[in-house]
Amino acid sequence: GGGIDGALMTVPHQKQPVIVWIEVEDIHQTVRDVVKAGGQADGEVHELHGEGLVTYITDPNGLVFGVKQPPATDTML
């Protein structure tokens, strides 16, 4: 089932030690909205097996977030 996801990374991999992940319906629209609001996209949207589409974004204050769009399921069709 669902839950709170997180990742612990070494400093060379990220600007901050803890990254909050936010589940979204449309990852591409979310990235566009963040950029329009003054944030930035941090890398390409890519598929993470079993998790769906993922990427990092940075808000206008420099805080990094992960965003995730779950894979489509038969119940979503």
Give the secondary structure arrangement, pairings included.
Elements: E1 20-23, H1 27-36, E2 40-48, E3 52-58, E4 64-69
Parallel strand pairs: 1-4
Antiparallel strand pairs: 2-3, 3-4
Short description:
With 77 residues, this protein is mainly β. 13% of the residues lie in helices and 34% in strands. Strand 2 and strand 3 (52-58) form a beta hairpin.
Descriptors:
four-stranded mixed sheet; 1 helix; globular; 34% strand; 77 residues; mainly beta
Written description of the protein model:
This protein is mainly beta. Helix content is 13%, strand content 34%. The chain is built from one helix and four strands. It has one helix at residues 27-36, and strands spanning 20-23, 40-48, 52-58, 64-69. The protein has a four-stranded mixed beta sheet, with helices on one face. Strand 3 and strand 4 (64-69) form a beta hairpin. The longest helix is centred in the middle third of the chain and has 10 residues, at 27-36. The radius of gyration is 13 Å and the shape is globular. The model has no long low-confidence stretch (mean pLDDT 83).
Distance between the termini: 19 Å
Please give the largest β-sheet. Answer: 4 strands, mixed
**Which of globular, elongated, flat, extended, rod-shaped describes the shape?**
globular
β-strand amount:
25-35%
Mean of residue pLDDT values: 83
Major sheet: order of its strands? 1-4-3-2
Please state the structural category. mainly beta
Provide the succession of SSEs. EHEEE
Radius of gyration: 13 Å
- Total count of strands: 4
Q: Would you identify the regions where 5 or more consecutive residues have pLDDT less than 50?
A: none
